[in-house]
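Troubleshooting entry. Yesterday's outputs looked truncated, so today I'm pasting the complete records for two proteins to confirm everything comes through intact. If either block looks cut off, that's the bug. Protein one:
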Amino acid sequence: MGKTCRYVVNAIGKGGETYHTYCKDKQELKKWIADNQERITMDELKIVDRSKNPIMKCINFINRGMLS
């Protein structure tokens, strides 16, 4: 996969299945979510943007902790 895939998707299915996939752009990501929406639990959907600045990742993590 290397540098060709921007988004990493981890999801838990309604039957307990684990989904792990890569998407190269936002359109492909939205299509994957739309195609699998009936099978996955949206609360357990995790999307990682691999090209996001590491400092922004840290700020988002801190903010998420403060809001909980």
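Protein two, checking that the full record survives here as well:
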Amino acid sequence: METQRYTIGKRDEEGFYPVTVDQTPAGTVHRRHGSWYATMPGHPVQRAADRHQAAAHLVTLIDQGKRPPSPLRPPSTHPPTGCAPP
């Protein structure tokens, strides 16, 4: 039997469940009108029959080398090196 590589987290206030694959954030799953959906930011949403099939789709995306975009860095409060202050 293959080990489960994904973990479905607690539901947020908007109804989305975060999913990690191999301990790395991969996206979310959510239910809408009786169907489940897998969402990886930057990739098409995939419909599934249940939450486990939706999470398994995120595993497939990870195995294909796809990744969600990295979080943006907060803006620096320091001027770039070599720039004179105003």
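Both blocks look complete. Sanity check on protein two: The first strand starts at residue 6 and ends at 8.
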